[in-house]
Structures are given as structure tokens and as C-alpha cells.
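Run: sequence + 5-Methyluridine triphosphate -> complex structure.
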Amino acid sequence: MSEFHLQEEALGKAYDSKQMRRLLKYLRPYKSLVVISASALFFGSGTQIALIALVQIALDDYVMVGDLGGLTMIAGIYLAITIARFGAEYLQFYTTAKMGQETLHDIRMEVFAKLQRMDSKYFDKNPVGRLVTRVTNDVNTLNELFSSGVINVIGDIIMLVAFVSMMLYYDWLLSLAVFAVLPFLVVTTLIFRNKVRTVFRDLRVTIAQINAFVNEHLSGIAVVKLFAREKAIKEKFDTLNRRAMDQNLKQVFYYAVFFPVVELIGAVSLAALIVVGGMQITAGLLTFGELTAFILLVERFFRPIRDLSEKYNIMQASMASSERIFQLLDAKLDRAGLTPTVTIPRSAASSASPSTTPALSLKGEVEFKNVSFAYNEPEYVLKNISFKANPGENIAIVGATGAGKTSLISLLFRFYDFQSGQILIDNRDIREYDIFSLRSRIALAPQDVQIFSGNLAYNIRLGDNSISDEQVLAAAKDVGLDQALGDDFDLGMEIQERGATLSTGQKQLLSFARALAFDPDILTLDEATSSVDTATERLIQNALERIMKGRTSFVVAHRLSTIEKADRILVFHQGELRETGTHEELLAIGGVYQKLYRLQYQPRNIERSARSAVV
Ligand code: M5T
Ligand code: MG
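>> structure
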């Protein structure tokens, strides 16, 4: 069984004081709601007891003596208390739910914010499906804890104590008759709890599996269709779905047995009550009203006991969920994200006028000094890399697939920290820069373009409202996105998640526009290998030239035209920087580049995939 399932399966203690304390901390900002809710609960419980007492008084002091006037008065009081009880219950429901929802909102924000700050390594290790479960399922489990669990458990216990005291006050012998059935109740509840817990846990695992399955097979629907796997996959889904159904039914079965059994035990104790109570009344030890009140009390006495076992399950599930959530919240953060030491120096122009927001800028000198990097040691994917790019220089990075080109680029953004060596930007170690301001000055148009649901403008400025509509439009036009999209072009045009509405070439241009809109000092482009039509090819080519002008740029290039125009070409082979020079120089050497060129970049071979470039 995978780690995922083991994690979802874990159900431990129903109460962990340390965790509970930490959970309760989230209630702190909502103290007034807690106070209102608790007061309403106390008040509501009080009214329940008062109403029962009132029934006893009505029967004994007014009905038995035939005082109808007084009885009307009692009925009036009863009505008034009932209305008050209605108000209290409304207030309690509403404030508890509000408190729960506010808390959930806060926790969900915290989890999401934390996830955003995690470094790339974390996402390599934790499948997205599981992280989604943290933000949705686990937080929802806590909902039950906050909006029904915590306060109501306290309420239930208070009510139990109140009912027991009142019963003892009316008649201790009768009380004993009622309590005699308690052992049966406890045993039943324990058996039930164990059974339900197992099913509940299995069900959670199955649901997690269903989520993952649906997620994966809908994301990969194109592949499923392509290979005509619908039938087999449907059958696989059916197995899971059926398992969930069976487990649900099993759970329902236990509840269907448990509730009537509790009722039965209640009925038995009621029967005993009527017999013993009747004898007490005949002996003059108990009044008719007291017996009635007692019967009402017993009925209410069993309800919280029955509910407590359900609450126990909620508590247990929330403890497990909160443990997973806290684990995520406590996970060690991106070292880089935590320790900003040096912010990027302000450009001379803006530091002169301190009233405006200072524009941070870099000259754009980049130097790698003996950099070695492994995702997993000791498999080094970059070995002892050294080179220097001068401000404004356009550098092409070439190499066969898997040579380490994308990895090299990600180091510049500190997506990963490397094992040895040094990367300097403007003569300063990149680890000294505040990571956020550093990233804001370097742009990346990645190999796989990520599109977000929203309109075109949103996708270019990525929600950064400091970039004006004019700037967005200029960036889009600058890269020729308007030409590529033709009549459809409009900043407000809706683009769907995963970019279903855009072609590969259009996505590439959009990604360039995005990089350009942020007006970076250093630009990195990780070209996609896929081929596009010649018109788009030309558009991309022109766009590239325009956006690289005046800034240091690194282009992982697959197009000969891009490579030829570069100031310098870095040739990577199996994680090593093998050759450096211009197109002509490198061809003259007759080394790796020449082979690569012959196999891959020569116009007649342009369609050939990078993979076939065995050098
Ligand atoms: C270089 C490995 C990959 C390859 C080597 C991105 C990534 C890569 N690798 C990992 O282990 N984990 C990762 O997250 O590193 O890969 P690259 O830098 O992506 O190569 P490339 O960009 O030159 O190739 P391509 O195909 O994009 O031209 O061994 O397994
Ligand atoms: Mg790559």
C-alpha cells in the first residue's frame, strides 16, 4: 500500500491535548462568537430543564388540584420559555457555524499560503492530489469539529450532569432503575464504535482513492481516449465505486442496528420506570408530575449518550486530519523563502525620489563558478559548470534531451539549491538576494507553458495590478500575440484551464508576453521542442529577438535561427559544459556542437526530435 493510503488511513487518538490546544488557538480571533455561542448553549440547556420542571409543577400543583387559572399562567410561562429557547438555539447554531466557517477559512488560507511557499523539492515528493486533499477534505473534517463537535460535546456533558442531578433530586430509587441499563448501553456503544470506526477508516481510504483516480484519469483523458482505454478504466473505476458503496452500506447497517438498540434499551428502562414509579406513587413517595418529568428526563438522557459516540468519531477523524494539516504547516520552509538578506540595489534614478516606490534593478551580469547540482545525490545532473554572461549578452544553451538545460535555468531562480559552487549575479552570490525581489527581476518562459483560467490580460499580468492594461497590450503586441490570435485577439478573451483554447505556438507567445510584461533584467526562455508552422515560427522568432534586446538572456534553443543569432552558445552534454563559442566557432571546432548541428539543427533535419540526437 502506498504512503498516501497509509497517511489517509491513520486514525489515532480521539483527543490529543497538544493538538487540541493548537486547534483552539484558531478560535482566538473569534472570542466574542465563542462567548455568545457558549452562553446561548448554557441558556438553551437551562430552558430544557426549566420546561421539564414546569411540566412537573403544572401537573402536581395545578392539574391535580384543579386550578385552571394557574394552569393557564403556567402555559403562558411555558410558551415564553419555549420562545426564549428558540432564540437561544438560533443564536447557538448561527454563531457556532460562523465560528466554524471563519476558522476554516483561516486554516485553509494558512495551508494554501504555506503550500505556495514550499520549495520545488517538496512538490517533487508530494503528489498534488494529496496536497489538494489537505486543503479540501482535511480542512472540511475540522469543520465538523468546530461547528458541531467541540462545543456540543461540552454541552452534551453539561446536559448529562444536569439530567442526572435532576433525576436524583426527584427520586434516587427510580434513578437507580434507569442507571441499571447503563452498562448495556456502554457495551453496545463500545461495540458499535469499534465497528463503525473500521468501516469509516476504510471508507476514507476508498474515497481518497476515488478522488485520485478521477483526478488522474480526467487529467489524462486525452491519453485514455487515444488508446481507447475507456472500457477497462470504467471497469477499474467500478471496482472502487462499488467498494465505496459497500463500505457506505456497511456503515449504514451499523447505524441501523445501533440506533434501534439504544431505543430498545431506553424502552426497557422506561418500562421499568413505569412499574417502579407506579409503585412509588401508590406508596405516596412520588407524585404523578414527578414521574412524568422523570420520563421526559430519561428520554433526553439517552440522546446525548447516543450522540457522544458519534462525536467520538468526529473527534478522532479531526485529530487525524489536524495532525496531517499541522505536519504540512510545520514542514520546513524553502530556505530561500525565509532568509532574505540583501535586497536588490535600487537603480540610481528611483533612489533619488524616495517618495515613489523604488524600482529594483539588476545590471544582468551572471556568473556560474564550478556549480554542481543533483536532484538526488549522487546523481549529478550538472557537473562543475563555469561560465560568465555579460550584461545584455544573449546566450543560447543547447544540448541533447536530458543534458541538464532546464536544470541549469532552475538554479538561477533558486528553485533548487545546488550542492557546490557559486552563482553570482552582478557579482553577488544569489543566495544573498531576497528571493522574491530576485525572482521579480528574472523572467522565465518555461518549457511547459502553464495557463490559468481567466482572461488573456489576467494570464499575462498574472494578477499583478501594477502592470497596466496598456503595458499588457504592448507586451502582447510586441510578441505578436495579436497576429497569432487573429480576430479572436482581445485582452478580455477567456482562456480555459490548461490552455485548451490555445495552440502550442500561441501558448509560447503568451508566455513570452508574460515575461515581457514584467520587464525583467534577465530573461530566460526554455523553448519547447514541438514544431510549429512556419508563420508562427517566424512570429516566435521575431518576438524572441525583440524581447531579448537590451537584457541578458538565456535561451534553451531548439531553433537554428535563435542559436545562430546568439552572442554565444553554451553546449551541454550529459551535465557538462563541453563547448562555448559562436555558431561559426563551434562548427569549426568539429566537436559536440557540430554533431548536434548535423543531426538536429540543419534545416532538412529540423523535424527530428531532440531525443534522436545521439552525440
Ligand atoms: C537533466 C533529471 C532528468 C535528467 C536530468 C527537471 C528534472 C530533471 N531531472 C530530475 O531528476 N528531476 C527534475 O525535476 O535531470 O534534466 P533537464 O535539465 O530537464 O534536461 P534538459 O532540459 O536538458 O532536457 P530537455 O528534454 O528539456 O531538452 O536526467 O532525469
Ligand atoms: Mg528541458
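>> summary
Residues 20-179+256-329 form a domain with the ABC transporter transmembrane region fold fold (CATH 1.20.1560.10). Confidence is low (pLDDT under 50) at residues 1-6, 336-342, 346-359, 604-615.
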